Amino acid sequence: MKYPEDLQILIAFLKKLPGVGARTAERFAFEMLAWPKQELARFAEQTASIQEKIPPCPVCGCLTQEGLCLFCSSPSRDALSLCILGNARDVYAVEQTRAFTGLYHIVEHLLSPLDGRHAADLNVGRIEQRILQNGVKEAVLAFDSTLEGDATALYLKERLQPLQIKITRLAFGMPVGSSLDHIDGGTLARALAGRQIV
Tens-of-pLDDT digits for all 198 residues of the chain? Predict the structure, then answer.
């Protein structure tokens, strides 16, 4: 038996969330039907405006509420070290380890030609500009241990080598195919401490 069309649309949207399959999306949708109207209205308003309320930092791409993010605006960060990551969520995973005190830079996406994400879209010029302006001595490539993460790290290594800085990558103690936000803090801290020149 088919659900009403609007319920099917809601379920389809919920299934887009990572780790949410058809059954879980159905449970979420039916739970939301039982919410008070005020809660549904607040939820809809929050989701509709979340990108405007939390835009990317104009310098590094991390999340911010206004102006520069808390990392770029902090005078205590080590400007000579730049950690390059695939998304803002990974910044918080690295930050929780307290093993890195430098600055961050988020690339727009990881390389995946089959998905239409090419090297030209990485905006490497912004990274190079930050390295030169800040006198960065080390670039840490902190991408997921996946095919896309490896391809992005290799490409950035080749692009950044002419700048004659130390280029490191997280140590390979992390499980292959894993995402940074699923790694426990101890493993991630060891991976940061054991990073190697690539």
Answer: 588 999 999 999 999 999 999 999 999 999 999 999 999 999 999 999 998 999 999 999 999 988 899 999 999 999 999 999 999 999 999 999 899 999 999 997 888 777 767 777 778 889 999 999 999 999 999 998 888 888 899 999 999 999 999 999 987 666 667 777 777 777 787 677 777 777
CA distances from 49 to 44, 52, 53, 56 (A): 9, 5, 6, 14
For residue 81, the cross-strand partners are 138
- C-alpha distances (whole Å) from 68 to each of 28, 50, 62 are 35, 17, 9
**Residue 17 φ then ψ, to 5°:** -70, 140
Helix, strand, coil percent content, the chain, rounded in steps of 5: 50, 15, 35
Q: Dihedrals φ, ψ of 76, to 5°?
A: -85, -5
Q: Name all domains of the chain by residue range, CATH numbers in brackets.
A: 5-53 (1.10.8.420), 78-197 (3.40.1360.10)
**What's the whole-model pTM score?**
0.78
